[in-house]
Structures are given as C-alpha cells and as structure tokens.
C-alpha cells in the first residue's frame, strides 16, 4: 500500500498545455515532460486517469465564431481531444508506461470505447487511462468530461492543471496585489464569482462532493507533491 494522500485521481490538462511555446499543436518535449511526471506519480502508487482538452487544435466555439456549424465544430473539437490523447498514450508508452485511450465517441479502430467498468479495471491493473472526446456530446467541454469521469471512476481528487498556480481573487497577470486562495468551498467560488471550471463541470463536481485542486503543472514535481498530500495550488471542496 502506498503512503500517498490520494489513491485514485483524475488529471485534467488543457490542450494548450501540450503546445509549449508553439501557438498550435503538440510540442514533443513538453508532452514528454508531462508524461514523465505522470509516470513518476503513478510509480509512487497512485492510480491516474487523464483528460486532455483539444484547444491546441480546435474548439467548437471558435470554429462557430468563424462561421461553422457549432455541432460540427464541437465534433471536430472532440476529435482534437482524441488526437491529443493518442499523443499522450504514445508519450507514456515511450517511457515504459502502460496506457489506454478510451473515447466517448466510437472510434474503435484507433482506441477503446469508454466503458466504465473496463476503465476501472485498467486502473486497478496499473494502466494509465486517458479519457478522450469529453462527454461525447456537443456543447460541452473537457472540463465536464473530466468531472464526469472522475465521479464515475470514484476518483478521490480532480486535478486541474492551469497556467497559474491556483485560484486568485483577481487576475494575477494584471494585478500585482492579487491574492491566491489556499482553500475555497464550492459556495465561495460562486459567491465570489471566481472562474475555476465551466458551469456544467462545476455543478457536477460540487453536487458530487468531488474535491478539486487547481495547480500549475509547468512547475516540475508538483503532481507528485500533491499526491503526497502537500498543499499546492488551491483546493476547492465542501459546501461552505
Ligand atoms: N467538446 C465537446 N464536447 C465535450 C468535450 C469537448 O463538444 O464533451 C469539444 C468542444 O468544441 C471543445 C473542444 O472539444 O471546445 C475541445 O475541448 P476543450 O475546449 O474543453 O479543450 P481545452 O480548452 O481543455 O483545451
């Protein structure tokens, strides 16, 4: 039995986290580093599932703003998340990890369909599972996919990696006096009008009593430190 504070977690990475300094696509060095951190955290004893967004390739809302049908745009966005998931699977396997991509839309020549019991079995057997295509429906985001899958697999923590190291009372890039919260309740996030996830994802996490930690994964070692119980970033949990 591991000495970790968290046994099974779901890590949500935005698609942009894979871009590095590029403005599109996947930087091989960046995905390699992220994969290495995930494997190190898994080797410490945690079961880890991942959700990766698609914003480094396509977002439905952006395509719709350019004139495309929104549902078609969202389908393209979901396929973008499958591309990222396959890239992460490859990066994890190159480092010796065992990984399975499971998609919410059927595309089973390239990856498995999402089946909850099978996903849990993969985790129990020491495989990393990457959930692709969000919830499988348009008008949602991968934040919602992450919250949904985290609840379904019984994760004890949802981790959201962002470009800033937690939740602040105002934008820390614009205000030098912005203050970072250590902990927040779900009700405080609403009362203070803080943006931590999109509304559907937020409501599901809150109603399911799923703790959520927001942190900056560009800082090496943070994932493992969180799993060991260190208070990094901002923890959102509880009702008041
Ligand atoms: N998407 C969707 N349904 C889902 C998840 C994602 O339609 O359940 C589409 C949507 O167009 C979204 C895109 O896939 O913009 C990429 O996901 P997201 O924007 O969450 O990626 P991120 O911002 O995390 O990179």
TrEMBL record:
Annotated GO MF terms: UMP kinase activity
Recorded coiled-coil stretches: none
Major site of localization recorded for this protein: cytoplasm
Substrates-to-products reaction catalysed: UMP + ATP = UDP + ADP
Entry EC number(s): 2.7.4.22
Lineage: superkingdom: Bacteria
Keywords assigned by UniProt, alphabetized: ATP-binding, Cytoplasm, Kinase, Nucleotide-binding, Pyrimidine biosynthesis, Transferase
Residues engaged in binding UMP: 54, 74, 135-142
Subcellular location field: Cytoplasm
Pathway in which this enzyme or protein is active: Pyrimidine metabolism; CTP biosynthesis via de novo pathway; UDP from UMP (UMPK route): step 1/1
Subunit structure: Homohexamer.
Family according to the record: Belongs to the UMP kinase family.
Role of this protein: Catalyzes the reversible phosphorylation of UMP to UDP.
The protein, known as: Uridylate kinase
Gene: pyrH
């Amino acid at each position: 039995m591991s000495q970790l504070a968290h046994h099974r977690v779901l890590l949500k990475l935005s698609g942009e986290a894979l871009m590095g300094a590029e403005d599109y696509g996947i930087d091989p060095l960046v995905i390699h580093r992220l994969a290495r951190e995930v494997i190190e955290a898994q080797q410490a004893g945690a079961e880890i599932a991942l959700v990766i967004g698609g914003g480094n390739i396509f977002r439905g809302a952006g395509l719709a703003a350019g004139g495309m049908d929104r549902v078609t745009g969202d389908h393209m966005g979901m396929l973008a998340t499958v591309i990222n998931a396959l890239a992460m699977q490859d990066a994890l396997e190159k480092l010796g990890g065992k990984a399975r991509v499971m998609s919410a839309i059927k595309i089973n020549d390239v990856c498995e369909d999402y089946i909850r019991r099978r996903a849990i079995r993969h985790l129990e057997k020491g495989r990393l599972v990457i959930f692709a295509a969000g919830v499988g429906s348009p008008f949602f985001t991968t934040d919602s996919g992450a919250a949904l899958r985290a609840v379904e697999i019984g994760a004890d923590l949802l981790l959201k990696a962002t470009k800033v190291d937690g939740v602040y009372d105002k934008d820390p890039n614009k205000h030098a006096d912005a203050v970072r919260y250590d902990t927040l309740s779900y009700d405080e996030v609403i009362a203070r009008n803080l943006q931590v996830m999109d509304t559907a994802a937020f409501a599901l996490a809150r109603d399911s009593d799923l703790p959520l930690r927001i942190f900056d994964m560009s800082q090496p070692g943070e994932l493992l430190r969180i799993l060991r119980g260190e208070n990094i970033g901002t923890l959102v949990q509880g009702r008041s």
